[in-house]
């Protein structure tokens, strides 16, 4: 308990709340960001925040022991965007045991950028049934 009563949220919780408002375009931060950036740049900000949120969700799912699916990287292309100096890329993947391909836009570590032919891990996306999230190459740094 703080000096003046109930203690507020910590910095990480507050930052996540602000990022969510910016991504949704709601609240003071979201409306201000949308007004100053314009539609095209605001959409880029939304994609970047979405990629960040999905990487955060993957870390939580892996910590709880959610099962992973191996996949083969067929191609990778750069989007030209960065989040915390890590690139956002478009991956075309073929999950093991299937003949179909999936495309993911995700953040990858600049130290561990996958290449065509590499095997990576996917995790089922709880927010989108049938969808996947990029879970890295399975090697912890």
Which whole number gives the mean pLDDT? 83
Taking all Cα atoms into account, the compactness measure Rg is 17 Å
Query: What's the total number of strands?
Result: 5
- Give the strand order of the largest sheet, numbering strands 1, 2, ... along the chain: 3-2-1-4-5
Strand content is: 25-35%
Helix % is 25-40%
Distance between the termini: 37 Å
What composes the largest sheet? 5 strands, antiparallel
Low-confidence parts lasting 5 or more residues at pLDDT below 50?
none
Shape: globular
- What's the number of helices? 3
Structural class: alpha+beta
Order of helices and strands: HHHEEEEE
What does the model show?
With 141 residues, the protein is an alpha+beta fold. Helices cover 35% and strands 29% of the residues. It has 3 helices and 5 strands, in the order αααβββββ. It has helices spanning 11-24, 27-37, 39-63; strands at 68-83, 86-95, 102-107, 119-124, 132-134. It has a 5-stranded antiparallel β-sheet. A hairpin with a 6-residue loop joins β2 (86-95) and β3 (102-107). α1 crosses α3. The radius of gyration is 17 Å and the shape is globular.
């Amino acid at each position: 308990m703080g000096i003046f009563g109930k203690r507020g949220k910590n910095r990480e919780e507050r930052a996540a709340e602000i990022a969510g408002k910016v991504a949704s375009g709601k609240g003071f931060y979201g409306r201000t960001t949308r007004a100053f950036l314009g539609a095209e740049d605001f959409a880029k900000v939304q994609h970047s925040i979405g990629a960040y949120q999905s990487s955060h969700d993957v870390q939580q799912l892996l910590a709880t022991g959610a099962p992973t699916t191996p996949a083969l990287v067929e191609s990778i292309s750069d989007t030209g965007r960065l989040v915390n100096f890590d690139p956002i890329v478009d991956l075309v993947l073929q999950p093991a045991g299937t003949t179909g391909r999936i495309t993911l836009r995700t953040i990858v570590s600049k130290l561990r950028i996958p290449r065509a032919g590499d095997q990576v891990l996917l995790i089922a996306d709880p927010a989108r049934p049938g969808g996947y999230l990029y879970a890295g190459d399975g090697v912890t740094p």
